[in-house]
Write a structure and sequence with these properties.
alpha+beta, three-stranded antiparallel β-sheet, 3 helices, globular
Length: about 220
C-alpha cells in the first residue's frame, strides 16, 4: 500500500482504438469510442458526451457589507428552471466556457455580471470538479468572489429566456448550508461550492488557489 504519494488525480491517456462522433450540437456532442484498458485485453466500448467546460461563482458578503441584520455571511443565488429535471433550482451564478479564447476567470466575471448585475474585486478558486466523469468531459471550476459592487444600469445585461426570470437573491449562508444538508438544493456546482466555502471559512480562507491555478485537463471547449 502506497501511503506517501500525495492524494491527487492525474492525467492518463489510454489507447483509443477507434473513435466516432455520432452526434453533434451547439452545447455537447456524443462520441463512440473503443478503449484499450490493459494490454492483451479486448477494447471496451465507451460512449462519451463531449461538453463545454463551465464555471460557477460563489459570491460572498459578510461583516459590514452583509445585508443581514447581524452581519452574517450571505451568498448570492438565483432560481432557474431546468427543463431536463423539470424543476426550478436554486443555484449560484454559472455558465459555459463557450466563448472562443475566453479564460475561466473572465467567463466567471461575465456570468456574475450577466446573471446578477454584480462585479467583484477579489477572486480565488474554491474547488474543481467533473460534472459526471463516468460519461461526460464537462469540467467545472467554482470561484469565490468577494468585495462586490453593483453594476451601473448602463453596464447591465438584458436577460433572456429562463434567465429573464432571475431575481438575484442574497441568502444567509447558514440557511443555504442547511438547505444543502436537508436535500432541498440539488444543483451540483451549488452544493459543492457551498460546502467548499464552509470549509474555506473554517480555515480563514488559507490555502485557496489563485484564479489562474492549473486545472486538470481543462479548460476545454467543445
Amino acid at each position: 500500500m502506497n501511503t506517501t504519494s500525495p492524494l491527487a488525480d492525474q492525467r492518463e491517456d489510454r489507447l483509443v482504438v477507434s473513435h466516432e462522433r455520432v452526434w453533434s450540437g451547439p452545447i455537447f456532442a456524443v462520441d463512440a469510442d473503443h478503449v484499450g484498458l490493459q494490454e492483451g485485453q479486448e477494447p471496451v466500448a465507451r460512449q462519451v458526451v463531449a461538453h463545454h467546460d463551465a464555471v460557477s461563482v460563489v459570491a460572498l458578503r459578510e461583516g459590514p457589507s452583509s445585508s443581514q441584520g447581524d452581519a452574517a455571511a450571505e451568498v448570492l443565488m438565483v432560481r432557474q428552471y431546468r427543463h431536463p429535471v423539470r424543476a426550478a433550482l436554486w443555484e449560484i451564478p454559472a455558465g459555459l466556457l463557450d466563448e472562443p479564447g475566453e479564460e475561466p476567470l473572465a467567463a466567471a466575471q461575465r456570468e456574475l455580471a450577466e446573471e446578477t448585475d454584480y462585479a467583484a474585486a477579489r477572486w480565488q478558486v474554491l474547488v474543481d470538479m467533473y460534472a459526471s466523469p463516468g460519461f461526460t468531459t464537462e469540467g467545472l471550476r467554482v470561484f469565490l468572489a468577494r468585495n462586490l459592487t453593483v453594476l451601473p444600469q448602463d453596464q447591465r445585461t438584458v436577460r433572456e429566456d429562463e434567465e429573464a426570470e432571475f431575481v438575484p437573491t442574497w441568502v444567509r449562508l447558514s440557511d443555504a448550508l442547511e438547505a444543502v444538508m436537508g436535500g432541498r438544493i440539488h444543483n451540483p456546482s451549488t452544493v459543492v461550492g457551498l460546502l467548499a466555502l464552509a470549509q474555506a471559512r473554517s480555515r480563514d480562507y488559507e490555502g485557496l488557489r489563485a484564479p489562474d491555478a492549473p486545472w486538470l485537463r481543462s479548460p476545454q471547449s467543445l
